[in-house]
Amino acid sequence: MSTSPSKKAFRVGVICGSQRKPRVGDQITNFILETVQPHSNSARATGERDLSFDFDYIDISALDLPFYDEPGIPSKITPPEGYAHEHTRKWSQRVAALDAFIVVTPQYNWGIPAGLKNAIDYLYHEWKGKPAIIVSYGGHGGGKAAAALRVCLAGGLGMQIGDKMVVNLTFPSRDALYTAAQGQHLGLDAAKEGGMWSSERTRITSSWDEMVGMLVSEGVAKAA
Ligand SMILES: Cc1cc2nc3c(=O)[nH]c(=O)nc-3n(C[C@H](O)[C@H](O)[C@H](O)COP(=O)(O)O)c2cc1C
């Protein structure tokens, strides 16, 4: 985060939590990013404050993290030197550099994908206290996965998740669910009125606005 009193630059990690191939998680994560990115510079989002945002797109499948193999417990480790493995140090540095997160997750058997949970569990201090938006998707919006993730992030890691910062996206028809299950093209377009989930964009940008409010008040608290 910038220390300049006039200009504040924040870095936001946008996490695609689905790993399988083919999948729709990447399409949905792009849809979220393309909804949030233009909004993030608007007066509504910034309150006309001098804020800027950089985004780091994190594809869990591209991290190549093995199943948790650190000998220690992350909450007891001083990052990044305290980690035994280079893959953990790299992941630690990437997450530590970020101020906030949007975590996009499918619902797998009422939970979140194992790869996403594995990547989260590797670290502790790098997540702690930071704001996070949860976006889940599924036949009924993936609410069970979102709830499980909320317990993990807010309870386990002390992350800040406000009332508007959980968005559940329901596949609008059985056809759409089958298309998703096959990892085929959903035709999402963040700029198109009347397209799939275009009516969800206000909920997505509202979640962003709540997160920005947290980032700004956190910055004020740190400066005070
Ligand atoms: C292992 C697995 C478990 C699933 N469990 C659920 C579930 O509990 N609820 C649901 O609505 N959909 C479930 N689905 C269907 C997913 O919503 C759908 O396949 C979606 O495309 C998964 O996201 P992805 O393509 O990004 O992996 C499941 C899919 C998989 C692969």
Structure notes:
It is a single chain. This protein has 224 residues and is an alpha/beta fold. Helices cover 38% and strands 17% of the residues. Strands 2-1-3-4-5 form a 5-stranded parallel sheet, sandwiched between helices. Helix 5 links the parallel strand 4 (132-138) and strand 5 (166-170). The chain is globular and about 50 Å long. The model has no long low-confidence stretch (mean pLDDT 94). The chain binds flavin mononucleotide. Flavin mononucleotide is lined by residues 18, 20, 23-25, 106-110, 138-140, 180-181, 183.
Name a few traits of the molecule.
single chain; alpha/beta; Rossmann fold; five-stranded parallel β-sheet; 7 helices; binds flavin mononucleotide; Flavoprotein-like protein; oxidoreductase activity
Molecular shape:
globular
- Stretches where pLDDT is under 50 for at least 5 consecutive residues are none
Number of helices, where a helix is a run of at least 4 consecutive DSSP H or I residues: 7
The helix fraction, in percent, is: 25-40%
CATH architecture: 3-Layer(aba) Sandwich
Could you tell me the strand content as a percent range? 15-25%
Strand order of the largest sheet: 2-1-3-4-5
Question: Number of DSSP strands?
Answer: 5
Mean pLDDT: 94
| CATH classification class | Alpha Beta
How is the main sheet built? 5 strands, parallel
Q: CATH homologous superfamily - what is it?
A: Flavodoxin domain
Structural class: alpha/beta
Protein name: Flavoprotein-like protein
Domain NADPH-dependent FMN reductase-like: 11-166
InterPro entries: Flavoprotein-like_sf, FMN_Rdtase-like_dom, NAD(P)H-dep_reductase
GO molecular function, one term: oxidoreductase activity
